[in-house]
Design brief:
Blueprint: H1 9-20, E1 25-26, H2 29-35, E2 49-51, H3 56-69, E3 73-76, E4 93-96, E5 103-107, E6 112-116, H4 121-130, E7 133-134, H5 147-152, H6 160-163, E8 170-177, E9 182-185, H7 198-202, E10 210-218, E11 220-221, E12 226-233, H8 236-249, E13 252-259, H9 260-270, E14 282-289, H10 293-308, E15 312-317, H11 321-332, H12 334-338, E16 344-349, H13 355-369, E17 374-380, E18 385-391, H14 398-418, H15 443-456
Parallel strand pairs: 2-4, 3-4
Antiparallel strand pairs: 1-2, 5-6, 6-10, 7-11, 8-9, 8-10, 12-14, 12-15, 13-14, 13-17, 16-18, 17-18
Helix pairs in contact: 1-3, 8-10, 13-14
Bound molecules: (2R)-2-hydroxypentanedioic acid and zinc ion.
(2R)-2-hydroxypentanedioic acid is lined by residues 140, 335, 345, 387, 389.
Pfam families: FAD-oxidase_C (PF02913), FAD_binding_4 (PF01565)
Domain FAD-binding PCMH-type: 43-222
Organism: Zhongshania borealis
């Protein structure tokens, strides 16, 4: 298409209105700002318009129009992403799923339920609970994140050690590919070895191959009497030893960690009580199903062994639902609490056994280069996934701070590469990590990914510039 053929914004908006109705296309400043970015808040949003389809047919018509007029599409769910995957900063059309939030076709025998892309995670969790079942992928943003976005980013969260990532709960997907085809992938089947599993390609593709419009989600039984320990530990070898000891005898539903600095900030911000009086450099949060007195006695015995071995210096076990919730808040409130310091975020992983050396190497590098920067460590240590947040000092402006962090990032990613890890464990690549993709994926892999994109999105209209250029 030559420059003279480029459609005017007015024409794009008029054609979109013909598909979804006038009131479902918006281009006022407020909506362009709210729906043109995610939680990263690094880029300035500048979409052309935000469109709110209500049906699969409307979504398909939008993608077909985008192919015809060659405008770019950015899919938008709950916009809770942390890598800029849902940022529209270049005149794109944002497709929001806010009006596609219907849950249907629950089947108690298959334990599956069909969700439109805009179903909020918590809505699905509540739906499952009302039917005596459980949707286990959980994280602090469950009240705003949408299922379509969770699938597009293969969201992880705080129970991955037991239940896996979003990928493990998608039994079927309805998608519109970048070239406008509507595909029904896997259709809820448990066993289906008839060729390539295209469903898996769309999970974690960050909207670069097409739009997810509906998903058949798997549910499971509800866990019983969840109980948590918060244990104070002196070092990472202690954490690994206690992880090993508990895992050998119990199925944990979570194994998380956070530092004393993280704890102090949450206690001050959220007014949750400290778990116990003494302070320790790090804390581990373990959760398990306390099915009966015998399991409780076994858990207590394990705790005592860990204290005797010197791996744990203090600890507390929840005795009620309220205490369980308060212990979880110590971990779950960290991300929101530290957002007031404009943190530079990294979401990195390695295999679990390498975590202590990995963390030490990253910490020495950052503190050697920037001794004044405060580092907040927390994360899903049972998954080998660490969240490294560097807080902006008050007296440093945002641009200088991010520029300095970007320099140290290269060193961090060299360590990630050396440890065979990932530059994005669970937050995706989006805009923020694309320059570093080659630290955890080979050139051949990236070239193949580009070819896959071309198959599903030959005109390059689907979320361009995300994952790679
Ligand atoms: O804010 C972060 O760095 C992590 C957010 C989230 O993945 C969490 O585990 O709390
Ligand atoms: Zn996380």
């Amino acid at each position: 298409m030559s420059a003279s053929q480029i459609p005017s914004s007015a024409n794009v908006i008029k054609d979109l209105q013909a598909i979804v109705g006038e009131d479902k296309v918006r281009s006022d400043a407020e909506i362009l700002l709210s729906h043109g970015r995610d939680w990263t808040k690094v880029h300035t949003p500048a979409p052309l318009a935000v469109v709110f389809p209500r049906t699969a047919a409307e979504v398909q018509a939008i993608v077909q129009l985008a192919n015809k007029l060659e405008f770019a599409i950015v899919p938008s769910g709950g916009r809770t992403g942390l890598s800029g995957g849902a940022v529209a900063a270049n005149g794109e059309v944002v497709v929001s799923f806010d009006y596609m939030s219907h849950i249907s076709d629950f089947d108690p025998i298959d334990r599956t339920v069909v969700c439109q892309a805009g179903v909020i995670t918590e809505q699905l969790q509540d739906f499952a609970e009302e039917r005596g079942l459980f949707y286990p992928v959980d994280f602090a943003s469950a009240g705003s994140s949408q299922i379509g976005g969770n699938i597009a980013t293969n969201a992880g969260g705080i129970k991955v050690i037991r239940y896996g990532m979003t990928r493990d709960w998608v039994a079927g997907l309805k998608v519109v590919t970048g070239n406008g085809d509507l595909l029904e992938l896997n259709r809820g089947l448990l066993k289906n070895n008839a060729g390539y599993d295209l469903r898996q390609l769309f999970i974690g593709a960050e909207g670069t191959l097409g739009l997810i419009i509906e998903a058949t989600m798997q549910l499971t039984r509800q866990p019983k009497n969840l109980t948590a320990f918060v244990l104070g530990v002196e070092d990472f070898n202690g954490i690994m030893n206690l992880f090993n000891r508990f895992q050998a005898e119990m199925d944990l539903t979570a194994f998380e960690f956070f530092s004393e600095q993280a704890l102090q900030k949450v206690v001050a911000h959220s007014k949750v009580p400290r778990p116990f009086e003494s302070t320790c450099p790090y804390y581990a949060l373990l959760e398990f199903e306390c099915l009966n007195d015998e399991v409780e006695a076994q858990a207590m015995a394990l705790f005592e062994t860990c204290v005797e071995e010197g791996w744990v210096s203090d600890g507390v076990m929840s005795q009620s639902l309220e205490q369980l919730k308060n212990l979880w808040r110590l971990r779950e409130d960290i991300s929101e609490t530290i957002s007031q310091w404009t943190p530079y975020k990294n979401d990195i992983s390695t295999i679990i056994s390498r975590v202590p050396n990995f963390l030490e190497a990253v910490e020495s590098l950052v503190t050697a280069q920037y001794p004044d920067f405060e580092i907040i460590w927390f994360g899903h240590i049972g998954d080998g996934n660490l969240h490294l947040n560097i807080l902006k000092p008050d007296d440093l402006d945002k641009e200088t701070f991010f520029a300095q962090c970007a320099k140290v990032s290269v060193g961090v990613f060299e360590i990630v590469e050396k440890f065979g890890g990932s530059v994005s464990a669970e937050h995706g690549v989006g805009l923020l990590k694309k320059d570093y993709l080659s630290y955890s994926r080979s050139e051949t892999e990236i070239a193949l990914m580009r070819q896959v994109k071309h198959v599903f999105d030959p005109k390059g209209i689907m979320n361009p510039g995300k994952i790679f250029d």
